[in-house]
Design the sequence.
């Protein structure tokens, strides 16, 4: 049984999942802390999506930690398929949320001061960047697992 | 050699490609005709992406028409891989463009009259919907071809 680096149960996968958990949490925190994000649809959407991505990636971090450091778990095609579909759906939602946030932030920056007081816009930008990074890592995980699937 | 419905050279694929070509052209026309779309980054981005999607999908419509009605072309794994990667990249770009456009339009609708004169905002909305449909069909094509790839 060949081992694909980045597929479930490898240390590369653990690194990808840790990255997803860190970036999605950072994106949520940059957007939430002290900002009335619910006045903008795009920002509420980002917060909702990150609320799904964070528990998903933390669960998979725990599975990977167990698999790497304690005991290699057996791979079952059905479970791996479910993980691939979950990753794919969440990565598409993250991409949509990140690009919505980025474009709305760009528009607010154009309008200027009344909507961007106290460096709020740079926080929106940071949040969008973190969401893009989280999307990229989820998508990479999904592709690596998809590559692994036929050999099971 | 099994035939996957929706993979290159089938009539389902031709229908998907036709849908992509129609929806992406509609999205471009709703956005461009008589509107200063270049004052907004998100709208310029949508127009740029649709400028790539339209020739791509029209080329593949022609290939599929030839393959369905004239002579079944042989499938080569390399060409199919290139088509899958192209579809995947363009579908991700379309999704990002569609969600950016949708969120900016939502913000403009909130602000109201000065930015939404002469039903411009409903045209932006229609353009975003068409871009979402084009994304969905590109992504479906990409997945069907990916499913077909291992059997080559």
Sequence:
């Amino acid at each position: 049984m060949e081992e694909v680096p980045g597929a479930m149960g490898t240390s590369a996968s653990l690194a990808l999942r840790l990255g997803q958990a860190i970036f999605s949490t950072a994106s949520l925190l940059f957007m939430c802390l002290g900002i009335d994000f619910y006045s903008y649809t795009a920002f509420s959407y980002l917060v909702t999506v990150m609320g799904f991505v964070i528990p998903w990636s933390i669960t998979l971090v725990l599975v990977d930690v167990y698999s790497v450091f304690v005991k290699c778990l057996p791979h079952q095609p059905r479970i791996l398929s479910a993980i691939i579909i979950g990753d794919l759906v969440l990565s598409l939602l993250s991409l949509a949320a990140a690009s919505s946030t980025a474009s709305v932030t760009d528009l607010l920056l154009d309008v200027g001061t009344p909507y961007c007081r106290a460096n709020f816009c740079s926080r929106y930008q940071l949040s969008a960047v973190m969401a893009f990074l989280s999307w990229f890592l989820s998508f990479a995980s999904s592709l690596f697992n998809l590559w692994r699937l036929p050999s099971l």
Q: What stands out?
A: Chain B has four helices and no strands. The mean pLDDT of chain B is 88.
